[in-house]
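Q: We require from you a single protein entry containing the residue sequence and its fold in token form, and nothing else.
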Amino acid sequence: MTPQYDLEKIKFSIDSGTWEKAVNIYESGKVVSFQDTEFTYIAEVKGTELYKVIVSPRKFTEGNCNCYLGQNDTLCKHMIAVAIYGLKRGKPMTEEEKTQHNEVKFNGQAGETTPKQLSWVKAVISDSMRYIKSYTGPSKIWFTYQDSLTEGCNRLAAIVSKLPANRQTAKLLINLLLRLDKKLQTGGVDDSDGTVGGFIEEVVSLLVEFAQKDPECKKEFKALRDRETCFGWEEPLLNLC
């Protein structure tokens, strides 16, 4: 069966610690006796003992492992390592494949953005926003829902970290913040663990750096005046106006 996920899907869905450990397991050749049954990936993973692992090619979070975490229905590094093997089949990973882009970081660049570039960024943002949705399901799927919020915010982090500082991108980020704020206030998003709120604060910090690099960005912050946001995240930006 052709995998229904890729490395990007995995990287955006899990924390950096689990990803780095899984990559290390894969690269050190600890995934052995790999089998593709067309319905599942079956393998053994060398560790403090030989772990037996099953991972679905349909969804990498489906399967099991007889390690401590696996026995407690928690996605573990062994399952991720086997999922990687299912995709790479023992071939070396490139540096880009190994690198996560899940943190909001200013790249230090300034300058204009072309209409084509802005159009592409808006499309990627819209695609990422679909993961940040309202919660209407039963309590048993709450953790799966939170994983969706995490993936959405990580995908957004990857794209906003590529933006140069200019007034156009500042406006784009202000609009993104307002869309997220609306989802939190009236869109039914359950941000109990603070994933979306934390991302909003990171983007605010990014905009502060934008303003330091290009003071013209501050003009876009005025759109936040007289806005009632869910936790006053706009204050650092208004203080710069």
